[in-house]
Amino acid sequence: MYCTKCGTRAEEGDVYCGSCGNSLRPKCANVSLAAPTSQDDALADKLARERVASALVLMQQGDHRQAADNLAAALKDLPDDAEAWASLGVCHAALFESEKAIEAFQIAVQMNPNLSNAWGALGNQYFCSGRTDEAIHALEQAVELNHQNAQAWGDLGGAYAEKGDYNRAALALEEALRVDQDQSASGASIRAIWKTALFGIKTFHR
User: Fold this and answer.
1) What's the confidence (pLDDT) of residue 33?
2) Is 151:119 a contact under the CB 8 Å cutoff?
3) pTM over 0.85
4) Do residues 83 and 109 touch, judged by C-beta distance below 8 A?
5) Which among 185, 186, 179 is positioned nearest to 157, based on CA atoms?
6) Distance from C-alpha of 188 to C-alpha of 150, rounded to nearest angstrom
7) What is the tens place of the pLDDT at every residue in 28-42?
8) pLDDT number for residue 186
9) Which tens digit of pLDDT belongs to each residue from 102-152?
10) Contact (CB, 8 A) for 85 and 115
11) SS3 state of residue 39
12) According to DSSP H, which parts of the chain are helical?
């Protein structure tokens, strides 16, 4: 080994040149160039999934803002997790952030086109944003994937009515009432809305 500064030969193990004092260590000796290991990746994946689990608990508690933050952080390491994207969409919808909700639901159904609830939620957000044609497409996908999706049938009835297609609107609302299994107070409230809408269609548009 020779000194790169003065050319003097150095002995094995020397740290500095005996003639000029120049460091004999490579300049990058202390810089780690190691790529992330599979163990690092596994840890990142584990932490991300823990964030998702925490977000689901926060959603049940009604803290959709913190849940959204947790999900956004988790999705940096789990970009292909369709369910997590759908959950993020639910959070944004609950926070009345419609455009962010639509974007999250769109990604969810792109990742997994078989998510009926995500299609239904996407359709609902489209409808609330005045994008009726897109709402109908998404809601039709939702009920095709899961015929028992009462909420999607109800929203589809509303979207059809908005377009003036009252026959389809009535059929969709009737199907919503037929398949609905929600016995909660909120479920009863939604059924009352569907029944009122159906009565109005049958009375004034048939």
Assistant:
1) 46
2) no
3) no
4) no
5) 179
6) 12
7) 444 444 555 677 778
8) 79
9) 999 999 999 999 999 999 999 999 999 999 999 999 999 999 999 999 999
10) no
11) helix
12) 38-60, 64-75, 82-94, 98-111, 116-128, 132-145, 150-162, 166-179, 185-204
